[in-house]
Amino acid sequence: xxxxxxxxxxxxxxxxxLLASLFxxxxxxxxxxxIASNVAISLLFFLHGARLSREAAMSGLKQPRLHILTLCxxxxxxxxxxxxxxxxxxxxxxPQLWLGVLFVCTLSxxxxxxxAFTSIARGNVPAAICGATASxxxxxxxxxxxxxxxxxxxxxxxxxxxxxxxxxxxLLPFVLGNVLRRWIGEWVGRHRGLLAVVDRGGILLAVYAxxxxxxxxxxxxxxxxxxxxxxxxxxxxxxGTVMLITTFGARAMGMPRADxxxxxxxxxxxxxxxxxxxxxxxxxxxxxxLLPIMIFHQMQLMLCAVMARRYAEKLERQExxxxxxxxxxxxxxxxxx
Length: 337
Fold this sequence. Notes:
- The structure is a single chain.
- The protein is an all-alpha fold.
- The protein has helices spanning 8-22, 27-51, 54-58, 64-88, 95-106, 112-120, 125-150, 154-157, 159-179, 181-190, 192-216, 226-252, 257-267, 272-282, 291-336.
- It has a single domain, classed as Up-down Bundle (Na+/H+ antiporter like fold), CATH 1.20.1530.
- The protein is built from 15 helices and no strands.
């Protein structure tokens, strides 16, 4: 039963949304929180850069087809499906929630959970490391460009300036952190627990600042409760469609089982850790835009946990059957002798 409950970080996110709804930051405190969240986000990406091992990032480049397919699922298939769903059911969600769903479709894959689930399923872990890392690196630039292209935000707030803001606030600290890895890499490696607190703290600050601004604009009065159920349904359709396409597509192309697992888990994931900071820059004060990625995050964890166990159990059964066959053959040979 526990596997169907929200993970601890999702619970913290929901608690932060509740806190912002009950006690939103206003006045000078709102300005302070906005500055603090921007600083925390820049620090978060600086530390991501400092942690990135170039050797690990390059280790899986021997399989370009697999990585190209994974990136196409992340940055091509998802946006096309999102646009298709919106075109078919334009009135199913409010405009802001559709904006959030399409934003989810533009995000990069996760890193930690993609690798973890690939490992649990006994897939190609080096390829997962390479693919997920490449997706996150590209996402810093590709996501805002896709948002500008797909959502036509250049008519609303100057899309090019938003991309530049992303580059300055996220990409520049990331590159700086990676350049300084030579000197601070060992320290970063020794303090992973502390850095995890910084990561999550930065995301929670960004969520609190975004929802505080949204609450001040009366967002919950504009958000019918029934929309939450419809949002869950749309996310489920989106995630389920991608997982079906990646699973059966990999088998149709004759991919090895280990590579199929990489395509399924890396190609179907969307990064909450990258999504919230990017959204705080692109959609300042629009807290409802964050709801789809928060819900999608929990749904992908639950579904992928079940699928990873099934992949592992299936392989274990095959190995057990092969072991039984081998043992029977050995016994027959012994009797014949």
